From TrEMBL:
Molecular functions per Gene Ontology: transferase activity, transferring alkyl or aryl (other than methyl) groups
GO cellular component terms attached to this protein's record: membrane
Presence of keyword S-adenosyl-L-methionine: no
CDD domains per record: PT_UbiA_1
InterPro entries tied to this protein: Prenyltransferase_related, UbiA_prenyltransferase, UbiA_sf
Signal peptide coordinates: none
Superkingdom per UniProt: Bacteria
Name of the protein described by the UniProt record: UbiA-like protein EboC
Location within or outside the cell: Membrane
Membrane topology, from the record: Multi-pass membrane protein
Keywords linked to the UniProt accession: Cell membrane, Membrane, Transmembrane, Transmembrane helix
Transmembrane domains' residue ranges: none
């Protein structure tokens, strides 16, 4: 299920909620259960959707992993393929049901969750094998996840839908270099990823500036930049499999810093700090469980 990655998916939801304006100008002590429950349900939804998606990724890769990654749960015999299928279906259903509980059938959340599940399964089975469409497919899953958070206020989706394109670009960039994790990458793919990273940073910086919150968002943006460019720079000097793997891992974990920057650009500083506090949780889980 990639627990460390699931924490980054929860950060996506919280960033989306902040972008929607749900928490704007509201003191944390004023929240009632009715206000917090939709956010909790969306977090539960992303846990199920992300977890189910990566379980099916391992299911479809089980034969290949026997050769390339025999330590993974299915090829190592820790869990059977049938057990994994049952777990994957269960997680996806939990994610979809939790999303539909927010706004029922009149809101966006449930339908976005179905789109996420479909996009994840398409990537797991077919998308990853396409050099261009694969990274975009994976990015779409993350972009829809951010929209899932924004959908806590259905009308906000119409206003901020385009922000969902930024995670698409970012994850496409991470996925672009991840192809070199086993046998090594190329300098060209690393340069393409670097350009995409710069575009993402520029957009978030522009939004922070437009909302007159750049001084608040700046520390989060600097942290985000350091987390993605430091391992990428090392990989560019020596694009071996292990170095590429570290760059991919850095790109995934840095999602939390990126989401904290989104929150700082749209909402309150305490909420941005709360999202950033998910970072050490993800890093600890990243030492215990596989990220890629």
């Amino acid at each position: 299920m990639r627990p460390a990655n699931i924490i980054t998916a929860i950060a996506d939801i919280l960033a989306g909620v902040a972008i929607s304006g749900y928490f704007l100008h509201t003191d944390f002590q004023e929240y009632t259960l009715d206000q917090v429950l939709p956010v909790i349900c969306l977090c539960l939804a992303t846990i199920g959707l992300y977890g189910g998606g990566v379980v099916f990724n391992d299911i479809f890769d089980a034969t290949l992993d026997t050769t390339e990654r025999p330590e993974r749960p299915i090829p190592s015999g820790i869990i059977s393929r049938v057990q994994a299928v049952i777990l994957g279906i269960y997680l996806l259903l939990v994610g979809i049901i939790a999303a539909f509980s927010v706004g029922r059938f009149t809101g966006w959340a449930g339908w976005i969750s179905i789109a996420i599940a479909a996009s994840a399964l398409i990537y797991d089975k077919w998308g990853k094998h396409h050099k261009t469409l694969g990274p975009l497919n994976m990015g779409l899953c993350r972009g829809l996840n951010l929209l899932l958070g924004i959908s806590v206020i259905p009308d906000a989706v119409a206003t901020w839908w385009w922000i969902g394109l930024i995670p698409v670009l970012y994850i496409a960039a991470v996925t672009n270099i991840s192809r070199g994790e086993v046998y090594g990458g190329t300098t060209r793919s690393i340069k393409v990823t670097a350009v995409c990273y710069l575009i993402v940073l520029a957009v978030i910086t522009a939004m922070a500036t437009l909302h007159h919150r750049l001084p608040v968002a700046a520390p989060f943006l600097l942290l985000f930049a350091a987390m993605i460019f430091s391992p990428l720079w090392k990989a560019s000097k020596n694009p071996t499999g292990p170095n590429i793997g570290k760059a991919v891992k850095g790109g995934i974990v840095a999602l939390i810093a990126m989401n904290a920057a989104w929150v700082a650009s749209f909402a309150t500083l305490p909420l941005a700090i709360a999202v950033l506090l998910l970072l050490p949780v993800s890093m600890i889980l990243g030492r215990l469980f596989a990220i890629t």
